[in-house]
Design a protein that fits this description.
Number of helices: 5
Number of strands: 10
Organism: Roseovarius albus
Shape: globular
Order of helices and strands: EHEEEHEEEHHEEEH
CATH superfamily of the domain at 15-84 and 101-165: Electron Transport, Fmn-binding Protein, Chain A
Oligomer: single chain
CATH class of the domain at 15-84 and 101-165: Mainly Beta
Radius of gyration: 21 Å
CATH architecture of the domain at 15-84 and 101-165: Roll
InterPro entries: Pyridox_Oxase-rel (IPR024747), Split_barrel_FMN-bd (IPR012349)
Strand content: 25-35%
Structural class: alpha+beta
Largest sheet: 10 strands, antiparallel
Distance between the termini: 23 Å
Pfam families: Pyridox_ox_2
Protein name: Pyridoxamine 5'-phosphate oxidase
Length: about 220
């Protein structure tokens, strides 16, 4: 279950941090909903932050059908990246400070999802991927809402992951210096829920919100 690295995905520096197996790729893609999609529009590069979700060996993202980036990207080459910050690494010199991170970079040809029923199913999967069980409690998307939404997919074939873990790597002579070094772990956490003031009386927090486990 591994992708052979290509000229675009092979790590040339710190190559030991590179991973090409799909288990690793999937675990990082599933750990965060946020990605950055790189497009070429009229010969110029654009990078757009958005949310993604994975189904099998494809990732999906959506946006307005009026979006210039999405309209120009069906059957076009794109680059998708995700990144997670796991910790700040403090060393005994500024040059050896680093960060513990997990990231994925994917290349390929974006494909538009056009069937309305498939679009509806994909959007429900997106919501349930974030908040399991929530989609069934929501009103269905309208025909106009589906028409106004574009969903793009990308097969996970040309991809690589890069992972950095552990503490600082100082020059050997610097370990004798009286300078604190180590790792400050970083994790995204959720705060208390903030109810919409227009919730109907008696509407309680739903289980999909109560059971939310966060990302990371």
């Amino acid at each position: 279950m591994s992708n052979a690295p290509t000229d675009r995905t092979r790590l040339r520096r710190m190559y030991e941090r590179g991973h090409y197996d799909k288990d690793t790729l999937y675990s990082i893609l599933d750990a965060t909903p946020q990605c950055f999609v790189g497009y070429t529009i009229d010969g110029a590069p654009y990078v757009t932050p958005t949310f993604h979700w994975r189904e099998g060996n494809h990732i999906y993202w959506h946006g307005s059908s009026a979006s210039r980036a999405l309209k120009s990207s069906n059957e076009a080459q794109v680059c998708v990246t995700v990144s997670l910050l796991d910790g700040f690494v403090l060393a005994r010199s500024g040059m050896h400070h680093s960060a513990n991170t997990r990231s994925v970079m994917l290349f390929g040809t974006a494909q538009k999802v056009t069937d309305p029923e498939e679009k509806e199913a994909k959007l429900c999967r997106f919501v349930d991927g974030l908040f399991p069980g929530r989609a069934a409690s929501l009103r269905p998307n309208t025909t106009q809402e589906l028409k106004a939404t574009t969903i793009l997919s990308l097969e996970i074939n040309e991809a690589s992951a890069k992972i950095r873990t552990g503490g600082p790597g100082d020059d050997e002579e610097d370990y004798a210096l009286p300078i604190w070094a180590g790792v400050i772990p970083v994790k995204m956490v959720a705060g208390p829920v903030e109810p919409d003031p227009r919730n109907l009386p008696g509407v309680e927090v739903s289980d999909d919100v109560k059971n939310w486990r966060g990302i990371g």
